[in-house]
Amino acid sequence: MEKIKLLNGMKLQGIRPIIESLCDIDYAVIKGEIVSLYSYGELGKRMYNDIDILVARKNLSKVSGILLDNGAIQPKMKKEQRLFFSLYSHQTPPYILMYHGIKVVIDINFDLFWGEY
């Protein structure tokens, strides 16, 4: 349990500059550690693989710029894969940020529901 709490804390520390840069954009951190806090009343009770940030679709390019400016990268993808994300998903392709040797995957969500809903 303590290992999960430490790893989750490191991931959140890694995205701190990104979150601070989002001050002029409406956003919400969803799922992951937030679920742990509200469902179990304590951080570190739930393991997660990525950090999900919800923003309005109109702010996607701004948020992408903030992520890139803070050292996150978006792995190369085929055009068809990018098209899938824009047409059939609720999020952009993931961003990767390395923080003290820890890989932090960041998903930018522009909808709460998958495309088929």
Tell me what you see in this structure.
A 4-stranded mixed sheet has the order 1-2-4-3. With 117 residues, the protein is of the alpha+beta class.
Question: What distinguishing features does this structure have?
Answer:
117 residues; 42% helix
Main β-sheet, spatial strand arrangement: 1-2-4-3
Structural class: alpha+beta
Q: For the record, give the distance between the C-alpha atoms at the N and C termini, rounded to a whole number.
A: 35 Å
Shape: globular
What's the tally of helices?
A: 4
Strand content: 15-25%
Uncertain runs:
none
SSE succession: HEHEHHEE
Please state the CA-atom Rg, rounded to the nearest Å: 14 Å
Number of strands: 4
Helix content: 40-55%
Largest sheet: 4 strands, mixed
**Mean pLDDT, rounded to whole units?**
88
